[in-house]
Write a structure and sequence with these properties.
340 residues; alpha/beta; 434 Repressor (Amino-terminal Domain); Rossmann fold; 3 domains; 6-stranded parallel β-sheet; 12 helices
Amino acid sequence: MSTEGKAQRDAQYGLLTTIAGEAGVSLSTVSKVVHGRRDVSAVTRARVEELLARHGYLRPWESGKRRPTQVMAVFRDLSGPYTLEITRGIVEAAAEIGVDVVLGTTGRRSISQWLEECVALGAEGLIIVISMLTEQDQRRIVERKLPVVLIDPLHAPSPDIPSIGVTNWNGARAAVQHLLELGHTRIGMVAGRSHSLAGAARLHGYRAALEEAGLAYDPVIVQSTDFDYDEALAATPQILDADPRPTAIFAASDAQALGVLEAARRHGVAVPRELSVMSFDDTLVAAMASPPLSAVRQPFQQLGQEAVRILMQLADGRAPASPRIELATELVLRDSTSPR
């Protein structure tokens, strides 16, 4: 940004701060009025508009430039196949309705800071992916009626904050049932962390399928890791060294499944002849693995569409029909699984 442009921005920011003080409201409320947000009372809006006119404040798009409509999507990080698929789903869904997407991570900015950034930029709202909201952040979102949608939150959020996910329990149960139908009775699992809603649901689905088949749960052949390749690679040998060794492993994500495949290769265990491997996600890497992974497919494009749709609905001041949406998964069979 040029020195002139920065000075102009700072001057505008200072003017909005002055108007907020005169109106007796927060700067974020003034920003909402400036950007046409509807979650401001009529009385407050009229007072702020009066002060904006009195001070001669000129909105950027009033000078002949069209105001870009933006949403923000914040991730824990931007690495891994899951993040790529979710990002693509959000960006493509937003593009269909002419909305730009600003991407960010919580590596150097907290959720609280991203909420402030969202207001400062005049974005329509914020999509938060696989992150944990503090109680303070949740209160802030609810009390200030900030348009926020969560995708795969780590913890169950306030019922006033909409969230979107998939049928993790059903998907995991279907995956293990398929392995059972192939004749596998000793099935290990590289599970997600227990503090993750998705990770816990997939583990419970795994256990439910075993219980329905009359098989005992054996913690020796279950390892919990992050949804991460390196951690799965390090944990899988403990499953492969069990006696008797499992003839199948269910991984809670594609990244973990790739770790399982590499660990099996290093142990000289052939997949699928000696070990069937089933994954969860079905990102682009699943079909490119060696051998290609059988997996529970998440509808990533639909996840992005629903997140953007609900966010724009919230930005218009309309509450979603349900605080929680779970989209159906499906089983995709490839070469990593075979009869025992």
